[in-house]
UniProtKB/TrEMBL annotation:
Gene3D superfamilies: Argininosuccinate synthetase, chain A, domain 2, HUPs, Single helix bin. Keywords: Amino-acid biosynthesis, Arginine biosynthesis, ATP-binding, Cytoplasm, Ligase, Nucleotide-binding. It comes from Cedecea lapagei. It is found in: Cytoplasm. Residues 8-171 form the Arginosuccinate synthase-like N-terminal domain. L-citrulline binds at residues 92, 97, 128, 132, 181, 190, 266, 278. This is Argininosuccinate synthase. One of its GO terms (molecular function) is argininosuccinate synthase activity. ATP binds at residues 12-20, 122. It catalyses: L-citrulline + L-aspartate + ATP = 2-(N(omega)-L-arginino)succinate + AMP + diphosphate + H(+). Its EC number is 6.3.4.5. Homotetramer. One of its GO terms (biological process) is urea cycle.
Length: 405
């Protein structure tokens, strides 16, 4: 045991196997320091939160804070990212990435409250989360020390962790049979490990938790109406609700129809490729609704810029740079574009697919008078000839020069 000069540590606690082992490990390896557990409720399984305080205390924590951040998560983290249209590597809706900076921020708040001198997370040395936690702490609390047990201890397997807790008579509901690693919040649930470690293995039924298999979803399509204001969903089927409630409602509807399943191999920030199955039913519906209104409202150049913002934002959020000036700058631009993204979209849900079948906006740039294939009196076809001649002028000059040669 070394004296690290640390007297009180705030731990990002979930009640799972890793963090249950971290509490006694910290006390044994950091001079019998005081460990304060912090659970951030961002919409994970309610069963996981039952008795979590008692569990932390039985593991050796001196206190356990449970902070309800569900509304803050969706309104201040998820919705802003949605305004940019961010999709990491074209398909991942960033469920874990958006949650980590909020959890890290809450831990800083608790550390300041209890007078802690260190922060601790249970992320492994192979993943992205260690970067997200520690980048947030560097931005918000550079004076606090950081402890990352997975980069220090010699407990390298699930079996070793279970044995460690058994030796100390600390109860856990974890078992060797729980082969998958899962992350759950109000926005999504991810599943990694087990059969998914080989990309040649198709996911089995156990890899999907929230959503009905699209093949077994209802044979009758369902329509849902989503109201959008300034690039944010504010009502579902005509009922105004908070961001979290909108998402919660759409999660239920979407799960029933097998909406929001993806099975991807992604590039982690640390250079490792990982394979995971993600379920984001409500989020997939919301994305389709927002893009539907944008199609009506944003002109061609604005839409192109919004797509560029989304691409850049996907990497900024994935890499844990939430509190960096770049993220705030991208967000400001997206908010400006979203000022007129108001409207209503009817989406059809059917066996895993979401289709925007009706859309309207008071700010729509779509004009039936101009777009019609029938006879109209507002568009002079002959004008197109001059436009094309000017638009292609450089190509024409280049070709004439080639002929001269």
């Amino acid at each position: 045991m070394q004296n690290h000069g640390i007297k009180k540590i705030v731990l990002a606690y979930s009640g799972g196997l890793d963090t249950s082992a971290i509490i006694p490990w910290l006390k044994e390896n950091y001079g019998d320091c005081e460990v304060v557990a912090c659970v951030v409720d961002i919409g994970q399984d309610r069963e996981d939160l039952k008795g979590v305080e008692q569990k932390a205390l039985r593991s050796g924590a001196s206190e356990c804070y449970v902070v309800d951040a569900r509304e803050e998560f969706i309104s201040d983290y998820v919705y802003p990212v949605l305004q940019t249209g961010a999709l990491y590597e074209g398909s991942y809706l960033l469920g874990t990435s958006m949650a980590r900076p909020l959890i890290a921020k809450v831990l800083v708040d608790v550390a300041n409250k209890v007078g802690a001198d260190a922060l601790c997370h249970g992320a492994t040395g192979k993943g992205n989360d260690q970067v997200r936690f520690e980048s947030t702490w560097a931005a918000l609390a550079p004076h606090l020390k950081v402890v990352a047990p997975w980069r220090e201890w010699n407990l390298r397997s699930r079996e070793a962790l279970l044995d460690y807790l058994k030796e100390r008579d600390i109860p856990t509901t974890a078992s060797l049979e729980k082969i998958y690693s899962r992350d759950e919040n109000a926005w999504h649930i991810s599943t990694e490990g087990g059969v998914l470690e080989s990309p040649w293995n198709a996911p089995n039924k156990d890899c999907w938790v929230w959503t009905v298999d699209p093949q077994e979803a209802p044979d009758q399509a369902e329509q849902v109406t989503v109201t959008v204001k300034q690039g944010k969903v504010v009502a579902v089927n005509g009922e105004a609700m908070s961001p979290f409630k909108c998402l919660e409602t759409l999660n239920v509807i979407g799960s029933k129809h097998g909406i929001g399943r993806i099975d991807i191999v992604e590039n982690r920030l640390v250079g490792i490729k990982s394979r995971g199955c993600y379920e984001t039913p409500g989020g997939t519906i919301i994305m389709a609704a927002l893009r539907g209104v944008e199609q009506l409202v944003l002109d061609r150049d604005s839409f192109k810029w919004r797509e560029q913002l989304g691409l850049e934002m996907s990497y900024v959020v994935y890499d844990g740079r939430w509190f960096a000036p770049l993220r705030k700058s991208l967000q400001a631009s997206a908010e400006s574009l979203a000022e007129e993204v108001n409207g209503e979209v009817v989406l059809q849900l059917y066996k895993g697919q979401v289709t925007a079948i009706q859309k309207k906006s008071p700010n729509s740039l779509y004009s039936e008078e101009f777009a019609t294939f029938g006879e109209d009196e507002v568009y002079d076809h002959s004008h197109a000839g001059g436009f094309i001649r000017l638009f292609s002028l450089s190509s024409r000059i280049r070709a004439l020069n080639e002929l001269k040669k």
